[in-house]
Input
Amino acid sequence: MTPLTYWSLWISLAYFLAAITYPISLLVKLRGDTSEVIRWLKNTPTFTIYLPFVFSLGAGALLAFFPWDEFVHLCFPQLLLAIGLLVVFLGLAIFVALEDLKRPIVEPFMFRSHSDQLRQEKEIRGAIKDSCVASDVRVSLVKQYKAIAPPFQSLGCLRTDGSRTAIAACGLNILVAVTVAFLLWSLSLPILFNTITLPHHIIAVVIGIFCIWFPLRLYAEWYLHFYSLQDLKRYYAFGLISVAAIIGATFYVFHEGGGLAKVISYTVSGIMALIVILGKFKPQWLHIVADVVDEMPARWFAVYAILIVLSLMIMVGATIVTYSDRCVVNGAGRSSSQPHQRTTGERTKGPGTFSECLIICLFFFGSLAQPIVSHLSDG
Output
């Protein structure tokens, strides 16, 4: 293994250790109630599966393969501009992460005293699943839950009323937001400074890995909001993150990217479109998905999760090893003290093929999921 690969593994391990604080705190919070632990582990996949096992791989590759040597060789005005831009991105990221505290519906175990919230959440969920309640009755039931489980309006409320799981979730939201901000900042550097080049294959894979968050979070929000996407129109962070996905997708489409990222992008966009359409026109089909996940034995859920995670780990790992070996071969004859100047010949081709145009359209459609859901829900 090359040093870059080792760094990627160590950074991924650090992210993994940070991410498992959520499932561990959830286990401690709901100890003694195995069925509830399993139910929420399965229906919050962004925290229990994606962050520790998938997002950590992308974050490790992003930070390890960033061209730090070229960055530190920028002249002082350029360095100042780059750092200032990073501060802006980080400020926006932290704002988005903290605003996520004010989501309309909060999981019952996020509260320090959660017994009443958990009992009423189960009763309302059972009433909605077992019978076709009228829309006004459903709204009334959800309002009852919101009355005893109000969203956290500030960090002070989180500190006084929130559980350790809520604090872990807030911290992970900030960590993820900061990482995504670093990715957007990285994408902007080659545009501003021609002495910085990014590893396009690694960045393409990272973007594809990060975009897996969308369908998982969409499902989690649908489940949390009692099998509805109506409240998604007030989830403004989702729309903002969608814009970030457009930026990332546009970047790797305009550069020489890896096929893995395109496959993931097609799949993610298709799943998001399917969820949005079914949520409006065939919501009972999504109820079947929830029933399958709820009733699936824990051992089978673990098998599915392990299979998917291992497949992603193999693909990402192969890309990292291949690219790091290529860096060693290509960099053997160049002095590390001299920043690499990007020439015109090294510019990769721009978009023009049908598949590249189609992938941009798919990402734009995925990013429009939030306003589309809002329009359909109002209608």
DSSP finds 18 helices and no strands in the chain. Confidence is low (pLDDT under 50) at residues 332-379. The chain has one domain: 3-329+346-378. The longest helix spans residues 298-330.
